[in-house]
From TrEMBL:
<keyword id="KW-0663">Pyridoxal phosphate</keyword>
<dbReference type="InterPro" id="IPR015424">
    <property type="entry name" value="PyrdxlP-dep_Trfase"/>
</dbReference>
<dbReference type="InterPro" id="IPR015421">
    <property type="entry name" value="PyrdxlP-dep_Trfase_major"/>
</dbReference>
<dbReference type="InterPro" id="IPR020578">
    <property type="entry name" value="Aminotrans_V_PyrdxlP_BS"/>
</dbReference>
<keyword id="KW-0408">Iron</keyword>
<protein>
    <recommendedName>
        <fullName>cysteine desulfurase</fullName>
        <ecNumber>2.8.1.7</ecNumber>
    </recommendedName>
</protein>
<dbReference type="GO" id="GO:0046872">
    <property type="term" value="F:metal ion binding"/>
</dbReference>
<comment type="similarity">
    <text>Belongs to the class-V pyridoxal-phosphate-dependent aminotransferase family. NifS/IscS subfamily.</text>
</comment>
<dbReference type="GO" id="GO:0031071">
    <property type="term" value="F:cysteine desulfurase activity"/>
</dbReference>
<dbReference type="InterPro" id="IPR000192">
    <property type="entry name" value="Aminotrans_V_dom"/>
</dbReference>
<keyword id="KW-0479">Metal-binding</keyword>
<dbReference type="GO" id="GO:0051536">
    <property type="term" value="F:iron-sulfur cluster binding"/>
</dbReference>
<dbReference type="InterPro" id="IPR015422">
    <property type="entry name" value="PyrdxlP-dep_Trfase_small"/>
</dbReference>
<feature type="domain" description="Aminotransferase class V">
    <location>
        <begin position="4"/>
        <end position="364"/>
    </location>
</feature>
<keyword id="KW-0808">Transferase</keyword>
<keyword id="KW-0411">Iron-sulfur</keyword>
<dbReference type="Pfam" id="PF00266">
    <property type="entry name" value="Aminotran_5"/>
</dbReference>
Amino acid sequence: MKPIYFDHAATTPVRSEVIQAMVPVLEEVYGNPSSVHYYGRKARQLLDQARATLAGGLHANEKEIVFTSGGTESDNLAIFGSVEARKHLGNHIITTTVEHHAVLHAAEELEKEGYDVTYLPVDESGRVSIQDLEQALRDDTILVTMMYVNNETGIIQPIQEAAQLLANHQALFHTDAVQAFGTLEVDVTALGVDLLTITSHKINGPKGVGVLYSKEGTMLASRQHGGEQERKRRAGTENTADIHGFAKAVELVRQEQESQSALYKQYREQFIQTLAEQGVNYELNGDREHAVDTIVNISFPGTNVEQLLTNFDLDGIAASSGSACTAGSVEPSHVLTAMYGAGNDRTTNSIRFSFGLANTEENVVQGAEKVAKVVKRLSKTS
């Protein structure tokens, strides 16, 4: 039987329509978009079209779209680029304890450089308190970075409320919306953010391409030194084919977002219901009232992550212990540690299941039955 994929939060299969859109670009549009001849102009035309598509997907204008190599680079450009450009205004940065490592490790590096970083806590719901943010704000705060949807738990942070709080403050507001885009409506104007990160491979596009939305007038110090691409914000020849594929993925996800969201909610409910019907002992992590339907993080008492993932894989189930970037690690989840405290069993017995185009109603139920079988077996032997 074909393995069942429950790890769409790590990466998604590239849609056939995206591949078909990319092939002729790879074969025929090989010019450098910065060249003035026919071949360069053809590439530039595709790049401009893609930029318009991405701007439309974010309700931004085209000048505010910066193409990058993915979510990590976009996060790093937003954080280091804005801090470097605004260091004369202060040296205080605010983030949260549950960020993706692309943000957390960037913040830790800035601490080494002498910046003062405040890490906002979360409670068992997985959400940040706006009151905590308000108390942490200082006159010398120059950046607040808070993710939109957590990659391990699917919990949605109060981004609009945070933006309202920051509206009259000098601090720039950045959000990593990698897990939100394609699942939630991401309108940069309505959200009120200055900087926002998305990436292609989370919405069934190619890997290696992302976008940083940078609100017009936001000063960014470039992290790469070379040509003057992307309005001097990101040097390097643009990846025309992958950017074109990214734009195609955005077109498709915008057309289908409402129907797909309803379907993934159905999958999540079917999955949890099947576990219950199979008599599995489990607990859901985080506040499900403030969570996306594509991700569910489940604690299985009496088990441990390493055994679970190994046995799931042997039974043809692809899942994750959290961030794909640390999937080889058996260290406790930093997100669940922030939510439940160090030493809590949930930090070492919880699995993330995430749904998407590789799923069907049938394989969701089959997958849940296999998961139940493994969990019950391991619970007895532990």
